[in-house]
Design brief:
The protein has 133 residues and is an alpha+beta fold. The radius of gyration is 28 Å and the shape is elongated. The protein is built from 2 helices and 7 strands; from the N terminus they run H-H-E-E-E-E-E-E-E.
């Protein structure tokens, strides 16, 4: 066999299968990168908090559950949530929660614990701050 005969040999079935599988994997990766690039939201974090209607009372403590969501495009770090319970026009109790990070479309849940009944006053839960990574 000389040099020109080696260059014109047919590929085996195993080589074609391997080439097809590798090409398919590469096409999937390129498609996913393109999809991510096209659908990427170029927005800062949009962080919102909502308190859930179920308040539990256990041993004289009132557990007020909440959910915080980031609907923006970027990740938020050190998300600070503050709760204030105002009774008869005065702030009776406050609480603070810190969430390390909140990715795009991520939800976190938690609870504030107060010693006074939140139904006796006005409860405010809000996002106080966050920082960008």
């Amino acid at each position: 066999m000389n040099h020109t005969e080696n260059q014109h040999q047919e590929r085996s079935i195993a080589e074609w299968v391997t080439f097809s599988v590798a090409s398919f994997i590469l096409a999937v990766i390129v498609s996913l990168v393109g999809y991510t690039w096209l659908t990427d939201k170029n927005q800062p974090p949009i962080v919102s908090v909502s308190n859930k209607p179920t308040i539990r009372e256990i041993n004289g403590q009132f557990y007020i559950p909440f959910e915080v969501v980031n609907t923006g495009g970027d990740t938020a770090e050190s998300v600070q949530i503050i709760a204030e319970l105002e009774i008869d026009g005065k702030v009776a109790e406050t609480g603070e929660q810190q969430i390390d990070f909140l990715s795009r479309d991520e939800k976190e849940e938690g609870a504030f614990v107060f010693s006074q009944n939140p139904h006796q006053g006005k409860l405010t839960i809000r996002v106080a701050s966050y920082k960008l990574p």
